[in-house]
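Below: protein 1.
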Amino acid sequence: MAKTVTGGCMCGAVRYEYAGEPIFAGNCHCRDCQRAGGGAGSAVFGVSKAGLKITGPVKYHEVLGGSGQKISRGFCSTCGARLVSFPSSSPDLATIAAGSLDDPSSYKPQMDIFTASAQPWDVMDPALPKFPRMPPTG
């Protein structure tokens, strides 16, 4: 992806900008992501929370994610588009919905996570590493 990424919601009321390289990029197949998006899961990339600038009317909803930890999901309070999440298990991390990028073609997933929850009709890229839950850290 580019060094600076920008994006926003469908109606344009919320915008974000991040300067720097993503920490990771992956497709999450947990039940929470399936329910939140109404599909196979979520394409997301992680960034440093400190470097993320968000402007506009964001509403937050707290849920339990596939990890069992709380996640604060941010969406546009005008059009309802999902944009960003803040996992309580990693307080310095923000995850951004790849589809909200101004140039979503710049998203390059590195892995599939929570594949144990993937639906049988979910088609995954066989070239990507698969993790039944969260990938190992360190």
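Below: protein 2.
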Amino acid sequence: MIAVAGASPVCYLVLIAEIELLPKIFIQVLLPPEVLDELLVEGAPPMVRAWANAPPPWISIHDGPAGPEKGMERLQAGERAAILLAESVHVGIILLDEKSARRFAAERGLRVTGLLGVLVEAANRGLVDLAPAIQRLTKTSFRYSPALLRSALERYHH
């Protein structure tokens, strides 16, 4: 399956040293240039900027259709671009963490998951030990609700 990713899942997978899970789960990961720009912004963690300066071969930087559409005004540029790209290339899934972007993408018929969903999928495939990965995540600035974390853990089949 091909995925389009927003900046947050990529950023935090880099920060917890699990970015290599993506090519084990997805055939290819597409990033719109706007997402790459967000990963390269001066305020981004140095580790993330270093990764984004030389993305691995399984990442494809891919332009989507131009222009924000009605209802997308509140979303960040990277989220808007990721949703438009996912729709235009008919990918299997879009990786987004921001609640309003996830809701918007789902309303448009896209299959959506986020960072926690990727970690649970990887754990269910035996690719990562979920508890230590989530422990590393809690040491970052990643924001999540206890309900979201509980839901993710419930989807984990030990």
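The CA atoms of residues 81 and 92 lie 16 Å apart.
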